[in-house]
Structure formats: C-alpha cells, structure tokens
Amino acid sequence: MELKWLEDFLVLATTRSFSKAAEERHTTQSTLSRRIQQLEDWLGVQLISRSSYPVNLTRAGNHFYRQAVEIVRTTYRARVGARRIGLHTTDPLRISAQHVLARHFLPELMAEIEQQINLGPCILKSDNLNNCLKDLINDEVDFIVCFHQQTMPDLLDVRNYSWLTLSLDQLIPVSIPDEEGNALFQLPGTAEQPVHCIGFSSENPIGWQRQARMTRSDVELHINPVYESTMGDMIRDMVLEGRGMAWLQAMLVNGDLKSGRLVPAGSQSWNQQIEIRLLRTRDTSREVVENAWNLLARKYSS
Predict the structure, then answer these.
(1) How far is CA 278 from CA 123, 180, 218, in A?
(2) Greatest Cα-to-Cα distance within the chain, rounded to the nearest angstrom
(3) 8 A C-beta contact, residue 237 and residue 126
(4) Closest Cα partner for 162 from 66, 272, 300?
(5) Distance CA 252, CA 236 (A)
(6) How far, CA to CA in Å, does 136 sit from each of 69, 99, 105?
(7) For 140, which of 41, 91, 135, 136 could close a Cys bridge (C-beta 3.0–4.6 Å)?
(8) Alpha-carbon distance 135 to 128, whole Å?
(9) How far apart are CA 301 and CA 205, in angstroms?
(10) What secondary structure letter does DSSP report for 171?
C-alpha cells in the first residue's frame, strides 16, 4: 500500500469527481483511477460507487475515509517530527501567518515574545489561510496567526484548538481619488453603474462575496467583481492602479490613506471590524510552545 493511494482517495472523496481529483493531484484521470483500483484491491473491498455522478463512497468507503484521514495525518506528523529532530539541534518554534499579517504584524509579535523569553530558533511561514490551517492540522506548525470575523464560517473544529484574540483591525473600503480628491470608485453604486470591486478570492473567508453581505444592511450594495486574489498586497497594487475599489486591512493601507494615495470608498459605516487570532493545537508538550503560549495567554486572556 502506498501513501499516494490514500491521498488520491481522500481527494476523490472530497471532490466526488475523477477529473477534478486528477487535476488537484496533478495527474491524469486514468492514473488516478488505476491507483484507486489498486487501493481497493489491496483492501479487498470496493470504496467508490462508480455508477453515479458525482461518484459516491460505498458503505465501506465511508468507514475507511475516517481511518485514511488519520493515517495520512499521522504519517505526515511523524515525518515532521523526524525532520525537526534531524535538522535542528534545538527545538524551533514554528509559526505560519497569512501574508498581510506575516509582513505587518508578525515581526512585532515576535519582538514582544522575545523580550520576555528566549525562543531560540524560529521557523516563520507566510501563506494563504487554507494552507496555514492545513499546516496546523498536520502538525507542521505550532501556531498560526490569522484574521477572523464572527460572520466567517468555521474552517476547522475549534474544539480541538485553543486560540487568543491578539488585536483588532478593520477592513476599509478604499479607492484612488479622482481629480477633486473624492473616491473614484464610490460605494454603494447603482444597478446601472455597479462599483468595480477587487476582492479576496472565494477560498479566502473575507472574499468579496462575504464582504458584501457583512456591510450595511440598510443600503443596497451594487458591486461588480473584476479581479480576485488571495494576497492583500496584490489587491492593494490593483487598487492603486485604478482598477477598482477593495476592502483592505487598515494595517495595509493606513500609510496610503495618510499620504492621499488612497481615500475611503465610502463612509465609516462601510468599515468592518476584524480580529487577529493566534491558534495552536491543544495536544503538545513542547516547552518552547508552552512558554510562548503562556506568555501570550497571560496578556491577552485578561
């Protein structure tokens, strides 16, 4: 049995499509189908019901899915642990943060921790939220730093994790100014002339679709999504090029607002509060993790 067979099966169970699963696994549909068949032959049971579209899991497939998740997760955790021991003489603290936070918030947080305790070596990663969560679930990082709004869907079972709110920020609708200094792209727009909007892609919980739903309920909002990206810095660059307005974190655009390069695309009633959270796994006994967590918990839980 090969690990890639299990990974193929998990992706197929999620997408319910051989073609989509093959695309996500960067292989051909025939190769993926053959590997699923090899897994079924090794187990001696049929996992996939191929008579319907989208494909369904058999009763045995549904039972095996839960076991396969744990097998893959345990395997990668074991690899991470072995690498950590083999590559480092001391135990590093591993933190993953969303791109904007990695650049504009994480350095300040690390300095705050290092003033109080000796961290030793640290591994810092910058990624999109989905990958940060995967790193946490697979025990490839000790902490993640991410944005959160109360109206966001939960992307993981928070009962298995501890978290702290470290700070608050705002999502501010911004635009380049016109010749008179007013927003070139002004909310709320009209049905005839919707406002061009640049937003976070749909895989990001603060994507423009949710941004639109979380704004003022007393005014009908008319926006035309023209670009999407997972990276706030890229969205900011597009706004500065005059391609549309966007809701962006205050930490990212405060300098532009002060200089006049950007102006609010609407009144403050369009702003949205957002939390900056630190999440960690509950199941850990590593001293460096506990020391950093206890330090932050004393400050931010009070």
Answers:
(1) 16, 42, 33
(2) 73
(3) no
(4) 300
(5) 8
(6) 15, 16, 19
(7) 135
(8) 11
(9) 25
(10) E
258, 262, 268, 272 alpha-carbon torsion, rounded to 10°: -100
- Residue 250: both structure tokens together: 């205050």
Torsion sign, CA atoms 254, 259, 263, 267: positive
- Give the confidence band of 168 by pLDDT, cuts at 50, 70, 90: very high
Task: Please say if the pLDDT value at position 73 is more than 90.
Answer: no
Q: How high is the pLDDT of residue 210? A: 45
Q: Going from the N-terminus, what domains does the chain have, and what CATH number goes with each? A: 3-86 (1.10.10.10), 96-302 (3.40.190.290)
Query: Letter for the amino acid at 82?
Result: A
Task: Judge if the upstream peptide bond of residue 177 is cis by omega within 30 degrees of 0.
Answer: no
Residue 49: strand pairing partners: 56
The residue with tokens 């405060």 is 254
What token pair was written down for 172? 């501010």
**Beta-strand relationship, 93-98 and 246-249:** unpaired
% helix, strand, coil for the chain, step of 5: 45, 25, 35
Q: Rounded to an integer, what is the distance from CA 281 to the centroid of its chain?
A: 16
Task: List, in order, residues 6 or more apart from 275 with CB less than 8 Å away.
Answer: 147, 148, 149, 165, 167, 168, 169
Least confident of 21-25, 32-36, 77-81, 226-230: 77-81
Contact call for residues 61 and 47 (beta carbons, < 8 A)? yes
| 164 backbone dihedrals φ, ψ, rounded to 5° | -130, 145
Q: Which two tokens stand for residue 70?
A: 């744990």
CB 79 within 8 A of CB 48: no
Six-digit token pair at 46?
A: 């049929």
Mean pLDDT of 41-70: 88
More confident site: 88 or 250 = 250
Is residue 89 classed as helix, strand or coil in its secondary structure?
A: coil
List the alpha helices (DSSP H) in the chain.
Answer: 3-15, 18-24, 29-43, 59-87, 99-104, 106-114, 129-137, 208-213, 232-240, 250-259, 287-300
